[in-house]
Amino acid sequence: MRGGRKVSGGGKASTNKDHRTLKRTIYKGRWDDICAEQLLPENVEAVLAKQTAVDPDKPGLGQFYCIACSRYYISAKALQEHSATTKHRRRLKMLTTEKPYSHKEANAAAGRGDTDTGVQERRPVPMTMA
What we know:
There is one protein chain. By secondary structure, this protein is mainly alpha-helical. The mean pLDDT is 82. A two-stranded antiparallel sheet has the order 1-2. The chain has five helices and two strands. A hairpin with a 4-residue loop joins β1 (64-66) and β2.
């Protein structure tokens, strides 16, 4: 039997997915609290020194890095064009103005935080007459 339809598997094929919607989302390679901490003025130089070490496996040899978006770019021009985009500016503003949601806060909301035993009452010790 040659040609014809192959009847194997099922479900939605990966070739039918709409990849246009994936481009509209913000790419988050790191958590917001980590990025916000790296964007603090005292940390920027150290982070850039660490992230822009020469690495042949990264785009642009790892020399062009955006801290806010945690992405590497192939050239200075590509990084400059990225810095002008709405997605980058919106993320940068969000990371610098809002307080990030921390892991400690998330664990507390899930009920895995520190135990709160409340205010301890001191009971008076009954005095006995001797």
